[in-house]
Amino acid sequence: MNNRRYPSPRSSLALALIVCVGACQRGPAEPPSGSRPESPSSAQRPANGAPANPHTTAPANDPHAGLGLPPPSGNSGPPLANPAAGGGDAVTQLEWDDPPGWRREQPASPMRRAQYKVTKVGADAADAEVTVITFGGGQGGSNEANIQRWLGQLEQPDGRQTSDVAQRRSLTVAGMNVLVVEAPGRIRGGSMMPGMAAAPAFDRGRLLAAIVETPNGPWFFKLTGGDETVTSARSAFETMLRSIRRR
User: Fold this and answer.
1) Which residues are within 8 A (CB) of 65 and not within 5 positions of it... i.e. 6 or more apart?
2) pLDDT tens series, the chain, 247 aa
3) CATH code, domain carrying 120
4) Does residue 79 sit within a domain?
5) Could you give the number of structural domains in the chain?
6) Which residues, 6 or more positions from 13, have their beta carbon under 8 angstroms from its beta carbon?
7) Is the pTM of this model over 0.85?
8) Which residues span the domain enclosing 231?
């Protein structure tokens, strides 16, 4: 006769309850050490394969990466062309007639669109120089700032400010306003930019300059040299200004 004793149904039920409570207190089993959680399935991703949340993976160039912020907005295209380097519509192109006797030269810097030498006259010790410069729209500074910079390159023998003796007037050429400024004075000379040849100094010098206001930025025409040479070239300078037209 088998004398083995079997647990009663009530004892088995109590044991099962104890095991279940212990498992619930421990929580779900952790993955083995060194394993990684599975990636979201393809069913959880949009058709293009991007993460379901667009902010979970920031672009490599996103300065907000890791901060939970949306990627930066704005134009991500190439930078605008440098107007001084021929940036297409960024510069209103002008042309004009060269005055007779003026020698057109190779510009001494990339900023210059044209450069001339005007043969000296009278007692002046050196030829005068004409430069034509433009930077394009929104560049080059205000008209007044440029005029004051030019006048600041001259000194008056009686100590007055050059702005006190300067003369200003305006023209209209091809529908564009042209500001003209002229002043005598001592021109200190020297190099205006690193790498450029030094301009001669004139004890009795003169400045004659113009700002042509185009739809896409100003053009600067500047004649500097000895007083007699610049004075004699005044009529040719104004004739050149009146010949300006858009290309």
Assistant:
1) 58, 59
2) 455 555 555 555 444 444 444 444 444 343 344 444 444 343 444 444 444 443 333 333 333 333 232 333 222 222 223 333 344 456 899 999 999 999 999 999 888 999 999 999 999 999 999 999 998 777 788 999 999 999 999 999 999 999 999 999 999 999 999 999 999 999 987 655 555 566 788 999 999 999 999 999 999 999 999 999 999 999 999 999 999 999 9
3) 3.40.1000.10
4) no
5) 1
6) none
7) no
8) 116-192+203-246
